[in-house]
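Kindly inspect the following:
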Amino acid sequence: MGSDKVLDAKGLACPMPIVKTKDAIMELEPGQILEVHATDKGAKNDLAAWTKSTGNELVETTEEAGVLKFWIKKGE
C-alpha cells in the first residue's frame, strides 16, 4: 500500500508512537496516508483506539519481522 509520509517509530515505547503519529498526521492533508512503523506491541491497540477517537481511519495493519506497520488515512 502506498503512503504520502512514513513515520519511523521503531524502538519507541508507549506513548511515544502515538505522540509522533499525532505530530506527523498534522502535516498531511485530509485523505492522505501516513505509514507508521513501530516495534511496541501496544501500538496495535493504541493506534486503533487513537484513530477512532480522532476521526482518522486505520486502513491496514501488517507485521513483518517484528515491525508493525500501520497505514492511517487522515480524516476531514
